[in-house]
Design a protein that fits this description.
Layout lengths: L2 H4 L18 E4 L17 E4 L14 H9 L6 H19 L10 H8 L13 H9 L14 H17 L4 H14 L15 H14 L9 H16 L2 H4 L18 H4 L12 H11 L2 H13 L11 H14 L7 H13 L17 H13 L13 E2 L2 E2 L10 H11 L7 H19 L8 E2 L3 H10 L7 H11 L6 E3 L3 E2 L7 H31 L9 H14 L6 H18 L5 H21 L8 H14 L5 H17 L3 H16 L10 H26 L5 H4 L5 H15 L8 H19 L2 H13 L4
Helix pairs in contact: 3-21, 4-5, 4-6, 4-12, 6-7, 6-8, 8-9, 12-13, 14-15, 14-16, 16-17, 17-18, 18-19, 19-20, 21-22, 22-23, 22-32, 23-25, 23-27, 24-25, 24-26, 25-26, 26-27, 27-28, 27-31, 28-30, 28-31, 30-31
């Protein structure tokens, strides 16, 4: 029996491509009735209504409407929503163009230390009277000073500092009395506070302020157990501070000099950065008080002017702001609107990049792993040449720290180091060590439910960490990451912890969140309409009769839509999904060698005939017909019929001969996507293209083998397998990452290179994630509404 007669044949065949009837028209109606498991529409929002029920095959050229329905997609958007979207984009662009030394909230604590400085000209008055004015104008109703988020450590420290400053200059006794009442009512409650929320250097700063208050005859209740405990911590920490070392080389102690005694200012002044001590206004104000140094004065005058009398807890914070703002745009899925601004941001960061890393501000003499990790990750993602040497000073004995010499493990610092380590190139062993260390640490914190950070109070840090651990970089589909981060990102409500609580206005910003939600909703609408079209195509092609399930259909579309998610990439997205579906359908057929040969021969021969006579010859086999119609419609208007036919012929030959289908499928998908996107044909022979093609197809072959081994495992060890992939796969992905994220002379475009990573990532995702996890992701990405 020949293959042409062995498969079920429909009694009526659609004449148009994809098996659809001729003269298809479109009728839109909104519906959100989805299957709870897979999100499959019960009432499709996009109906394809036939005006001609059937007919003989008269050529693909008559099916333009069906082609536009499936392959061009739809991008409906309310004009008012579009106008709001444009407004938000312009607002964010203006924010980025105005970036300078950092938009950050004022710290009452630091402002009080600045206000304490006596006029260096000898008048006996305050050097910065506007700082006293700021303090006077910013007391809260309960008598305290501090951030709008109530954290007692922050309120006590800020309030005592402001009371000391006002009392020193004999100003506003009523405000001082009100502040002292707040302190008296709350200071004993410090014993009940979560120590993870304790500001930087609190155990040094609070006793110093209490001692200052006593000299001013301010009565502070200091006999409570909580205060005695803080004094004990102060004494213990001071004993551990290497005073000789801090005078010999820069350390993080430069950030918290205020109140410390026995300092050699002549030596410490050598460690200034643009006039400041680690960009700390309070530390620099303390230095100015003792030294009358002109550089300290210039730095503080600039800061006080910038913030209208107040000063932040750190300034500048330009590296911090530039990097974290870019990171937020990327993770929210809106970075494509700001490519120019992102390039400018990263050019700025790279200008101050060193092989020892960076700090939160430029030209600092101390570096930290958090900023260095974020900088390394983003710079490498955008093709900058960065060395792994930046991580050497943060590693000791197999462990990694936030700041050299301090073996502290702040969650966000370790989280960002973990994210950076996943961009390793081959043989970058220190990144492998960093990944193992941080993954283990974060996992332990997760299982003990102790993901609380010392640097930030954010909406859902446990969720961010969980996503990073559960969906590694190689498997993280762009729309999936954005969907999760939309729920994790707190916008304006996120607050950072320094010496006091503070806000980074261009990092944690509701404007980003508003745009991201509008953009996601628009993309999701487009995807749902396309999915409805896909279901109609599936039914009209009778693919279910060939054994293809609707779950497989949905998975194929989800993978494509989660990666090439932009509305304008509809052709690429649908070509990707449909190619995947047809590959799976053909592979699922149980055919003899002869039947495979007949299938391939019929495809090749009819493709040649149709290319010669305009597409008038109808195949005898229904599945061959669907395939030929599909290829023809994908190429329609692009003149790529022959190239697509050849790509399919190569895959079919591999299938016929029992060759490596994982590798062949990757090649087919890449050629299809590139032809659908209009990539110039000359790029296919580019040396870098060939390198990427080889590396991608190789790793996809390994991933498909691994996935098949998982599926066929009869010993119940799937749970173990899904947590780790083979060494060969990891090495292959590292090599691919190096090829994609390294810029060379006469390189391919970033978008073209990224497409290779997208295909490899989709294979990795399906091999790595369990089926039930993927099902939950499908519902979340495609069908759950954004609130």
């Amino acid at each position: 029996m020949s293959f042409a007669t062995s498969l079920p044949r429909p009694t009526t065949t659609g004449a148009a491509g994809f098996g659809l009837p001729l003269a298809t028209c479109i009728s839109l109606s909104v519906s959100h009735s989805f299957s709870p498991k897979f999100g499959i529409c019960n009432n499709t929002s996009l109906r394809l209504k036939s005006k001609a029920g059937s007919g003989c095959y008269e050529g693909i050229h008559r099916s333009q409407l069906a082609a536009s329905t499936i392959l061009e997609g739809h991008t409906p958007i309310n004009p008012e929503v579009e106008s709001e979207k444009i407004r938000l984009i312009e607002r964010i662009r203006l924010m980025f163009r105005s970036m300078d030394d950092g938009e950050i909230s004022v710290s009452p604590y630091d402002t009080a230390w600045v206000a304490l400085v006596e006029d260096i000209g000898g008048s006996g008055g305050p050097q910065f009277p506007t700082s006293l004015e700021w303090i006077s104008n910013n007391q809260l109703d309960d008598g305290s000073w501090g951030d709008r988020k109530f954290v007692l450590y922050d309120r006590i420290l800020n309030t005592l500092a402001c009371v000391v400053a006002l009392t020193t200059w004999k100003m506003h006794p009523n405000k001082c009395e009100k502040g002292l009442r707040f302190i008296s009512d709350n200071i004993e409650k410090l014993a009940d506070e979560d120590e993870e929320l304790m500001p930087v250097g609190f155990e040094i700063a609070l006793p110093s302020l209490i001692d200052l208050a006593k000299r001013l005859c301010i009565e502070i209740p200091d006999n409570s157990a909580s205060i005695k405990n803080i004094y004990a911590k102060r004494d213990s920490k001071l004993k551990r501070i290497p005073m000789d070392l801090m005078h010999k080389k820069p350390t993080s102690l430069l950030f918290s000099l205020e109140g410390m005694e026995g300092l050699n200012w002549d030596k410490l002044l050598d460690f200034q950065s643009e006039g400041s001590f680690l960009s700390s206004p309070s530390s620099t104000a303390y230095a100015l008080h003792h030294t009358k140094d002109e550089l300290c004065l210039e730095y503080l005058l600039k800061a006080v002017k910038k913030f209208n009398g107040g000063v932040p807890n750190a300034y500048p914070v330009d590296m911090f702001e530039h990097l974290w703002s870019v990171d937020r745009l990327r993770r929210l899925g809106i970075s494509r609107y700001f490519q120019v601004e992102i390039d400018e941001c990263l050019d700025y960061v790279y200008r101050y990049w060193t092989n020892k890393g960076i700090c939160w501000a430029r030209n600092m003499c101390v570096q930290d792993s958090d900023d260095s990790s974020m900088g390394f990750r983003l710079l490498r993602l955008y093709g900058y040449d960065v060395s792994i040497d930046v991580f050497k000073q943060f590693e000791e004995g197999g462990q990694f720290c936030s700041i050299p010499g301090q073996m502290t493990h702040a969650i966000t610092g370790m989280y960002n180091l973990y994210r950076a380590s996943q961009l390793m190139f081959p043989q970058e062993h220190i990144l492998a060590d960093a990944r193992n260390f941080t993954a283990n640490l974060l996992h332990q914190k997760r299982v003990t439910n102790s993901i609380v950070d010392k640097w930030i109070i954010t909406k859902d840090l446990p969720g961010e960490v969980a996503y990073a651990l559960d969906v590694p970089f190689y498997a993280s589909l762009p729309r999936l990451e954005a969907r999760f981060f939309l729920e994790q990102y707190g916008g304006d409500d996120d607050v950072w912890i320094g010496k006091t609580l503070y806000r980074m206005l261009y990092v944690n910003c509701n404007t980003y969140l508003e745009l991201a939600k509008l953009d996601y909703k628009h993309c999701q609408t487009v995807h749902q309409l396309e999915w409805n079209s896909m279901q109609t195509w599936y039914r009209e092609c009778n693919l279910g009769e060939f054994g293809l399930s609707e779950r497989s259909l949905l998975l194929a579309y989800y993978i494509a839509a989660s990666t090439a998610f932009e509305p304008e990439k509809s052709s690429e997205r649908l070509a990707w999904a449909i190619t995947t579906i047809l590959v799976e359908t053909i592979m699922s057929q149980e055919l003899s060698d002869e039947q495979k040969r007949e299938f391939v021969d019929e495809f090749v021969n009819i493709s040649i005939i149709n290319n010669q006579n305009g597409g008038r010859y109808k195949p005898g086999n229904r599945l061959v017909e669907v395939l030929i119609n599909t290829v023809t419609l994908m190429a329609e208007g692009r003149g790529t019929d022959q190239q697509l036919s050849n790509a399919w012929k190569n895959w079919l030959k591999t299938w016929e001969e029992g060759g490596d289908l994982g590798e062949a499928e990757a090649r087919l998908l890449l050629h299809t996507i590139h032809l659908s996107s209009g990539l110039d044909e000359s790029s296919f022979s580019h040396p870098k293209y060939q390198q990427l093609l080889e590396a991608t197809s190789k790793v996809c072959h390994q991933l498909r083998l691994f996935q098949n081994l998982k599926a066929n495992d009869a010993q119940g060890s799937t749970s173990r397998l899904v947590t780790v992939t083979t060494f060969q796969i990891e090495a292959g992905m590292q090599e691919l990452v190096k090829l994609i994220f390294t810029k060379t002379l006469e390189d391919l475009t970033s978008a073209t290179k990224q497409s290779f990573f997208n295909i490899a990532r989709s294979f990795y995702y399906t091999a790595y994630c369990p089926a039930d996890t993927i099902d939950s992701h499908i519902n979340k990405v495609l069908f759950e509404k954004i609130v």
